[in-house]
């Protein structure tokens, strides 16, 4: 009888712990992003300072627990043809999954649009913090998405490879 009670106690503790971890990962650490003028910026082709583009319907989330948890959605009246002539494209971008409750950001659908050419990806801000780039994808129909990627300097830093001269000084 006491073995059953101990077993039930262990299972109950594991279920409670699992529920707390799930809640923390999907809700607790995320905060809504306060709307700022610099939420949707792109790096010009000349490599100058990022420039804001026109946007509306902005929704964003971020978390302090990881440098790559930033996600945002917006709409824009800018066309891909105009953006392509003014801003730096970002190669090999892969949208990261967002929590299920942040329903405007579907990483799989965004990735398919990028692969099919229906969305173009631009450098938003390089090294927004050391080793992390903010990237912006815009679709043909004017929907936009923002997330953060680990860049080459970040990859090198995290795996212990020497950084090299192309990487900025780490704070």
Distance between the termini: 59 Å
Give the domain tally: 2
- Sheet with most strands: strand arrangement: 1-4-5-8-7-6
Total number of beta strands: 8
Which structural class do the helices and strands define? alpha+beta
- Can you tell me the overall shape? globular
Q: If you average the pLDDT, what whole number results? A: 85
Low-confidence stretches: none
List the secondary-structure elements in sequence, H or E. Answer: HEEEEEHHEEEH
In helices, the fraction of residues equals 25-40%
What amount of the residues lies in strands?
Answer: 25-35%
Continuous helix count? 4
Oligomer: single chain
The description of the largest β-sheet is: 6 strands, antiparallel
Question: What value does the Rg take, in angstroms?
Answer: 20 Å
What does this structure look like?
With 171 residues, the protein is an alpha+beta fold. It folds into two domains: 1-31; 33-159, no CATH class. It is built from four helices and eight strands. A six-stranded antiparallel β-sheet has the order 1-4-5-8-7-6. Strands 2-3 form a two-stranded antiparallel ribbon. The radius of gyration is 20 Å and the shape is globular. The protein starts with a helix and ends in a 12-residue tail after the last helix. The model has no long low-confidence stretch (mean pLDDT 85).
């Amino acid at each position: 009888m006491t073995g059953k009670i101990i077993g039930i106690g262990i299972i109950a503790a594991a279920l409670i712990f699992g529920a707390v971890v799930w809640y923390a990962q999907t809700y607790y650490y995320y905060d809504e992003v306060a709307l700022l003028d610099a939420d949707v910026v792109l790096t010009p082709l000349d490599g100058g300072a990022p420039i804001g583009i026109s946007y509306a319907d902005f929704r964003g989330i971020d978390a302090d627990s990881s440098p790559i948890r930033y996600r945002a959605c917006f709409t824009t009246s800018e066309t891909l043809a105009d953006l392509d002539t003014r801003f730096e494209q970002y190669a090999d971008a892969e949208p990261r999954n967002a929590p299920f409750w942040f329903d405007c950001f579907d990483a799989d659908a965004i990735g398919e649009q990028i692969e099919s050419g229906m969305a173009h990806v631009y450098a938003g801000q390089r090294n927004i913090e050391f080793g992390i780039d903010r990237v912006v994808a815009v679709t043909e129909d004017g929907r936009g998405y923002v997330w953060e990627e680990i860049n080459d300097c970040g990859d090198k830093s995290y795996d212990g490879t020497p950084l090299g001269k192309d990487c900025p000084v780490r704070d």
